[in-house]
Design brief:
Largest sheet: 6 strands, mixed
Order of helices and strands: EEHEEHEEHEHEEHEEEEEHEEEEEHEEEH
Number of domains: 2
Structural class: alpha/beta
CATH topology of the largest domain: FAD/NAD(P)-binding domain
Number of helices: 8
Number of strands: 22
Shape: elongated
Helix content: 25-40%
CATH superfamily of the largest domain: FAD/NAD(P)-binding domain
Distance between the termini: 23 Å
Strand order of the largest sheet: 10-3-2-14-22-21
Length: about 375
């Protein structure tokens, strides 16, 4: 039986960042990452928009807000130090053209809420009139908007690969094609799949984190939600150059379908929001391109179905379908140590390096 000090379950951005951070914080530990797929970062971490969110969309003081704020700064610095591609584009959050006094009232209140949220977070942002929005993005029609100049887009695959490379240099072992099917407690250790003994587990298994937690008697429930993306192709493939998001209230269940440029020059529209029954269903009953056009025609009207091509989809773990629940990151067992990362949806990629710090701090607090 293989004996290790720490087993990280899940080889996505959070798991790989946690393993890397643990290799620095616990240099004498033997650390193992278990991943059921043949490679790291191919589920939620490899199927997202790559945005390094600032926390702007989340309530002040929430884990999502705090960890996205710190994590995005860590990820930017890490990317620059390791030649990971970053797109310095900023994010434009817009209030579309309005049709009624009721809509005007709603969006004025929404703009005020966003302004207050950004001020409380001490973020750099500009409030723009419709004219100011058009100066930044000539194809965007809006009454007003908020521009966050420090938001970046990262090459997410390269980011995760670099985290793995760093961890391997620090003697972290990765085992692929290994699904965790059973965890038992033997004395002050866990035994995984009757073959690996460890004094601590950090559960970073994304959409399957509640299933892994249940193996040690911990009850959580996550809802799988698919987010689909279309690529904008042809003559309009550069219709915008920045992230362009519709305005949604802080704490909304999702950030809405938005325009997402990438470091490689491509431009995408997404993600959608489709609750699922099957945690692995990436493609059945695809959302029609007309739905994507309807979502953005109020602020970028000059697109047609011919400009869109299906690209890919990702599945994220939600603790609630109706509202934006916060991350759950805590040590649910302490002898042996079992740390759960539950409900790590957006901004999980942005927050990954800060979540890793938090996981390692919980390990330090609970070592006997």
């Amino acid at each position: 039986m293989e004996k290790v000090d720490l087993a990280v379950i899940g080889g996505g951005a959070v798991g790989c960042a946690t393993a890397r951070q643990a290799s620095f914080d616990f240099p004498n530990w033997k650390i193992l990452v278990l991943e059921k797929n043949a490679c790291f970062g191919i589920e939620a971490s490899g199927r997202n928009s790559g945005v390094l969110h600032s926390g702007f969309h989340h309530p002040v003081g929430s884990l999502k807000e705090r960890l996205a704020n710190r994590g995005s700064k860590l990820a930017k610095s890490y990317a620059m130090d390791n030649q990971v591609l970053l797109l310095n584009c900023g994010m434009l959050v817009v209030i579309p053209k309005l049709g009624s006094l009721k809509e005007v009232t709603k969006y004025v209140r929404l703009l005020k809420d966003m302004f207050i949220n950004g001020k409380r977070q001490r973020l750099k942002f500009l409030v723009l009139t419709g004219v100011g929005v058009r100066k930044l993005e000539p194809e965007v029609e809006a009454v007003a908007g908020i521009f966050l100049p420090e938001v970046r887009v990262i090459n997410f695959s390269h980011f995760v690969r670099t985290l793995v490379t760093d961890a391997i240099r620090k003697q972290v072992d990765f085992i692929f094609k290994t699904e965790v099917k059973d965890i038992s407690v033997v004395g002050s250790n866990f035994v995984i799949n009757d073959s690996i003994q460890t004094r601590a587990i950090v559960n970073c298994s994304g959409i399957y984190a509640d299933i892994i937690a249940s193996m040690v008697g911990l009850q959580y429930h996550q809802y799988p939600v698919r987010g689909e993306y279309y690529e904008i192709v042809g003559p309009k493939r550069n219709i915008v150059s920045r992230l362009v998001n519709p305005a949604v209230p802080p704490g909304h269940s999702n950030k809405g379908i938005h325009f997402g440029p990438r470091p490689d020059g491509r431009l995408f529209l997404g993600p959608s929001f489709k609750p699922l029954r099957d945690r692995g269903d990436y493609e059945s009953d695809k959302t029609a391109p007309e739905v994507f056009l309807d979502s953005c025609k109020a602020f970028v009207p000059n697109l047609t179905v011919a400009d869109l091509r299906w690209a890919y989809s990702g599945i994220r773990a939600k603790l609630s379908i109706d509202h934006d629940s916060d991350f759950i990151i805590r040590a649910d067992l302490t002898n042996p140590i079992f740390i759960n990362n539950i409900g790590i949806d957006s901004p999980g990629l942005s927050a990954s390096m800060a979540i890793a710090e938090m996981n390692c701090e919980l390990l330090k607090q609970n070592i006997k």
